[in-house]
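It is worth pausing here to work through a concrete case rather than discussing structure prediction in the abstract. The textbook approach is simple: state the sequence, then state the predicted structure, then interpret. We follow exactly that order.
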Amino acid sequence: MRRTLPGQRRATIAAGTASAVAAATLVGVTLGLAPTASAGEFLVNGGFESGSLGPWSCSGNSGSVVTSPVHGGSRALAAAATAGDTAQCGQTVTVAPNTTYMLSAYVNGSYVYLGVDGGGPSTWTPGTGGSYQKLSLSFTTGATQTSATVYTHGWYGQGTYYADDISLDGPGAPSPTPTPTPTGTASPTASPTATPTGTPTGTPTGTPTSTPTGTPTGTPTSPPAGSHALVGYLHASFANGAGYTRMADVPNSWDFINLSFGEPTSVTSGDIRFNRCPATECPTVESDDEFKAAIAAKRAQGKKVLISIGGQNGQVQLTSTAARDTFVSSVSAIIDKWGLDGLDIDFEGHSLSLNTGDTDFRNPTSPVIVNLISAVKTLKAKYGPGFVLTMAPETFFVQLGYQYYGSGPWGGQDPRAGAYLPVIHALRDDLTLLHVQDYNSGSIMGLDNQYHSMGGADFHVAMTDMLLKGFPVAGNANNVFPALPASKVAIGMPATTNAGNGYVAPAEVNKALDCLTKLANCGTYVPRSGAQPNLRGLMTWSINWDRFGGQEFSKNFNGYFGR
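Step two, the predicted structure:
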C-alpha cells in the first residue's frame, strides 16, 4: 500500500514490488474493431535515434538515451527505477475516437511494463534474461477520446530497464502533431502502497505484558450471514497529500480501521514498532490519550481497530524463530498499549518468498512463511476467538499463483509469485477478512484463461471470483487452492484517482458488486462461483483519501448496501 503521490514524501500501503507477472510476449485482448484504413505510425522518436528523449518525458529525470544495449538502430531508452520511482517514460499522441490501435515495444530488464494511461490496458514481462523481448497490446479509444499517453516503466528497486522501437500503429496519421506531456499519473501512486524517504525506527510503543489490557474479547469474529463491511486504512504514522485524520473524526461508515503502519526496526528483526505521526508532520495530531480514548469509543460502537503491519516500506522477514518470537511480543505490546482488536498483515515487497523446492502451498517449508504462520497462530491463541485477523496481499502474491508459484519446477521464476497462498491457507480458519489489493496491478489471468486489466468492473469480478471459486496452483489440477467463504472476502480498491492506479468510478464499483452478489449487470466475465450475496464488502486505501475526495467511496458503499 502506498502512502504518497509521486514527488511527495513517500510512505505507502500498496505494493512495493510488481503486482503481478504476465507470460512472456503477452498480447492484450482487443477491445474493439479498428476501422479499415491505411495504418500510420503515431509515435515520434520511438527508436530514440534522434539521440535525445524528446518528445518522451520520464519521471524524476530517470530516462536517458544510450548506445548499448539496443534492439534496432544505434540507440535505445534507458530508465533507472529506484526504491521510490518506477522510471515511467511516456508520450502523448493525438488519436481518433472509437478506433483500435496496436502498441508494441522491445524491452530489456526486470519487470518492464508497457501500457496506456487512463485505465487502459497494460502488460509486462518479469524479466528478459538480458536480451530484448517484444511486448504488445491493443486498445480502443472512447467515443470522445482524442488523445492517449503510452508509457513504459520498471518497478520499485528493480534497477535500469531498456526500451527500443516503441510503436503505436493505427488508421491514418496523427494530426495535429502530438505534444509531449508528463506521464506520472499513469504509474502506480498512493494506496494499501508511496514510499517514505526512510524507514523510521523510532522507539518501542509498549512493553510486552503477559496479561492483555484492552484487548480482544471472546466474541467470535465470523460475521453473520448477509452482513457487509467497509474496511479502510488510516494514515496514523505519517502525513501526505490526503492530510491527517484524527481517530475521533473517522466517519462511522468504516467498520474496520487499520492503523498504518507498524514497521520493523530492521527487515529480519521481527521487532515491530508503531510510531504515531509527529506534530511537526501532522499539526492536527491528537495526544496519545486522546488517540487511545477515540479507539476505545470506536470499539464501543462495534468497530474493529487493527494495527496494520508492513506496507511498502515495512519489509518483514521472519527468517528465524527468534524473529518470530520477537514479532509476537512486539505486536502484542502494540495491541495492548492501544487496546486494539487484532492484526492486519500487509506484507509486501520482499517480505514473503518461497525457497527453491517449496512447491506445495499446503505444506510450506520456507522459514519466512512457516514462522509467520506460527506467529499469527500464537497471537490468535493468546487473545482468543475475539482476535481479528485480516490480510491485504497484492495480486502478485495471490491470483498470480494460478499461473506461477514460487521459482517453479525448474527454477528461474520470481520466488515471490503466489507466496501468500500458503499463509492464507494455513490461517483460513483464523482469518476474519481477506481483501486483495486489486490495484497497482498489471494484467492477471482469470479462471477464463484470459488476461484482465484494471480500469473496470471485470477486473474486480475476475480477481474476486478466483478466491470464491478456488483455483489450481500453477495450473496443477492436483494442487487446488480451496475457495474461501464469501463472508471472508472483500474487494480492495483505491478511494480516489490520487490514491492508487486502478481507480474505478462508483458506477463500475456497483457493477462489480451486482455481478458478484447477484449475477446481474455482468460484463465479459461471468463468475464461476455463482451469485455470492454474502460477499463481505470493500476495502480501500484509504480513509484519508476518501475524506479528501468528499467521501465518494464510502457514501457509495453505504448507498449500495442501504446503510
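Step three, interpretation. The radius of gyration is 23 Å. DSSP finds eight helices and 24 strands in the chain.
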